Amino acid sequence: MSKQRKVLGRSLKNFPSSILAQEETSDSVVFTLASGLKAEFNMISIPHHDIKDQTWVRFEVNGRDQNALTMEEVGDIMRTIKHQQFFPAIAVKESDKFEILDGSRRRMAAIYQGVDLKILYTEQKLSIDDAKQLAKDIQTAKEHSLREVGLRLILLKEHFKCDNKTLAKKEGLSESKVTRSLQAAAVPHDFVVLFPSQSALSYADYKYLFDLSVQLQGLDISISSFCLDVKDNINQLDIDNEEDLKSQIVKVIKIQFALVSEKKQDTKIVTEKLWDFDAKDCYARKKTKGRSISYEFNRIPKNLQSKIDEAVKYVLESELRQ
């Protein structure tokens, strides 16, 4: 007796029972919203050439950083969506456009692969709270990255005007999770996009990048120009493994920072005071910039100027004349 073949993917019955109402057909489903209202969702297929124009994603609701959705980041979906989309995206239709509540990774995978996108949509106007809770309840994609959590927390922190401790309590998170997430979100975008798969970045990686941004600012080095130089070197890497590629990119960044920081030290001007004068506008100082040395004097007596000139000439004559 042969075993029954397990069916891959999901059907409409796979939605959480807490939000799934009884009314259901093969192409529609009714969800119970956080407010207690019910909304009917119907199935539609968006042609691949219309996905960009007819669909959009709002970070405040979806919680997914769209700038992070590179081909590498959605590679797992791209491998299957070309043949079958197991689970539809969830959207709200308004003014002939579909706002994706859940399924933004499927949306980008469909765009990259040039395939149609299946969507379950409602034309019922949802409150921002209902939309956010529905997106959270039916989320089927991989867990949001630490940075994405941080970006969402920044919006909430600005909205509630609260500190990290209060924010952690409101969101049911530990204070350390809030702190780490906010620090990950504070990493400049130029750094983050250097990594094809940002989900591979750990807290330690984000902390290093954040600290690096502070160091570069302290050295007055442009982060954007620094990242452009790093990107040129990254393009020469030929590594398929996600974790190995991340490690090599971090290594490239560290090498580049060592180069620019050393160069910056060479161009840094070091000023040394040679004498303390009673008058504030009088000074005698030495400036060193790399291998260049200069002496500066201001408002010193003429007889002292003459003696300094004579002393300099005497030293040069005695030391350099053969």
Automatic annotation (TrEMBL):
CDD domains, A to Z: sopB_N
Keywords recorded for this protein, A-Z: DNA-binding
Family matches, as InterPro entries: ParB/RepB/Spo0J, ParB/Sulfiredoxin_sf, ParB_fam_C, ParB_N
Pfam annotation, one family: ParB
Ranges where the ParB-like N-terminal domain occurs: 55-138
A single GO molecular function term of this UniProt record: DNA binding
Keyword check for Oxidoreductase: no
Entry-linked NCBIfam families: parB_part
PANTHER family: PLASMID PARTITION PROTEIN B (PTHR38973:SF1), PLASMID PARTITIONING CONTROL PROTEIN-RELATED (PTHR38973)
Family to which this protein belongs: Belongs to the ParB family.
Protein name as annotated: Chromosome partitioning protein ParB
Gene symbol of the encoding locus: parB
